[in-house]
Amino acid sequence: MSPQSPAPKVLIVGGAGYIGSACAVSLLEAGWTVATYDDLSTGHRQAAQGDLIQGDIRDRGRLEGVLRAGRFDAVMHFAAKSLVGESTRHPLRYYDVNTGGTAALVDAMLSAGIKSLVFSSTCAIYGDPVRLPLDEDHPRAPVSPYGDSKEMVERMLAATRAREGLRVTTLRYFNAAGALPEHGLGESHHPETHLIPLALQAALGQRPPLALFGEDYDTRDGTCVRDYIHVRDLASAHLLAMRRLLEGDPGDAYNVGTGMGTTVREVLQAVERVLGVPVPYEVAPRREGDPPALYAQADKIRGALGWEAHHVDIDDIVRTAAQWARAPRY
Ligand SMILES: NC(=O)c1ccc[n+]([C@@H]2O[C@H](COP(=O)([O-])OP(=O)(O)OC[C@H]3O[C@@H](n4cnc5c(N)ncnc54)[C@H](O)[C@@H]3O)[C@@H](O)[C@H]2O)c1
User: Fold this and answer.
1) What is the pLDDT along the chain (330 residues), one digit of tens a residue?
2) What is the CATH number of the domain that holds 57?
3) Which residues contact 117 (CB under 8 A, 6 or more apart)?
4) Which atom of ligand 1 lies nearest, measured to the CA of 188?
5) Is residue 304 part of a domain?
6) What lines the ligand 1 site, CB under 6 Å?
7) What residue's CA is closest to ligand 1, atom 9?
8) 199 shares a domain with 147
9) What is the distance in A from the centroid of ligand 1 to the CA of 192?
10) Of 61, 71, 152, 227, which one has the greatest count of Cβ atoms within 10 A?
């Protein structure tokens, strides 16, 4: 992209969801043009940025038509089913949408002559850590069909890049968190399975006490450690990654996390500091497949793309999520 190039036009697939809508806002703020393609299965019409085209990623023909008619330069792909527990009960749904759907999307892109893709992957592709922090070369041994469906996509994209000249960057997110209340955007999953919105809703009396799964892990306070990354910081990673692809870079795979682990109890304490009321909770047994700690080594994306996380303080992340939780727009 030279300074004279016209602003790129990007199709945000899955852009009516939590992370896709936040990323779309960052592109709009950079002066780019976006449209959203989404089946609204877990997303929200009110979250979609630009024109909303309602459709399924498995509908290859429709996607090709949309990509050709809209004269898009690139695609960001967020659409997926992403409930780990559900994936163990209904694995085929996950392989169908996440893996098969991505194959259909990439095929449609290539037919329409579009070669630049940023794909949402996950730290769940690594499985149980054999070392921490998790770097990109950590062995990939997912423990759920969800993680496996994404890992398969990563291999499929690597093969496609080699054969078809696809330029693709895969971003492996850790735990997305926070909101963009100034844009009326936040997290609204049904069912909600993520700790920060659950803790906020419990503290606000919007749901029963939170279940705290396991307090006997070998961590600093006995509860699980995770790496919470603000959606704003995820969005800036997408913008940087896509800019690079549009300049002709072949793309790569990067972790996107802060590198800082926060325990469940520390999250609950942050919620209490922000809201001024304690989070009611009940200790429950450990959940199967929950590793004690997961946090990122994110040096690669810093070095390659110049990315930095700007919201590393858990109170800062919780504060934006709390603004949203008090008055969600959808
Ligand atoms: N939220 C996290 O912490 C996290 C962590 C790691 C990776 N991810 C990945 O990031 C992406 C976005 O996650 P999110 O939290 O915003 O989820 P989300 O459910 O809010 O967004 C997903 C969007 O995709 C759409 N979608 C689902 N199936 C579709 C289909 N078949 N056709 C068209 N659209 C479809 C949904 O309607 C929704 O708008 C997902 O790929 C997820 O696996 C999320």
Assistant:
1) 665 678 999 999 999 999 999 999 999 999 999 999 999 999 999 999 999 999 999 999 999 999 999 999 999 999 999 999 999 999 999 999 999 999 999 999 999 999 999 999 999 999 999 999 999 999 999 999 999 999 999 999 999 998 999 999 999 999 999 999 999 999 999 999 999 999 999 999 999 999 999 999 999 999 999 999 999 999 999 999 999 999 999 999 999 999 999 999 999 999 999 999 999 999 999 998 899 999 999 999 999 999 999 999 999 999 999 999 999 999
2) 3.40.50.720
3) 74, 75, 76, 77, 106, 109, 157, 166, 167, 168, 169, 245, 251
4) 20
5) no
6) 14, 16-20, 38-43, 56-58, 78-82, 97, 101, 120, 122, 173, 175-176, 189
7) 120
8) no
9) 13
10) 227
- CATH for 215: 3.90.25.10
Which of 12, 13, 19, 188 to mutate to test ligand 1, by most ligand atoms within 8 A of the CB atom?
Answer: 19
Domain membership of residue 301 (yes or no) is no
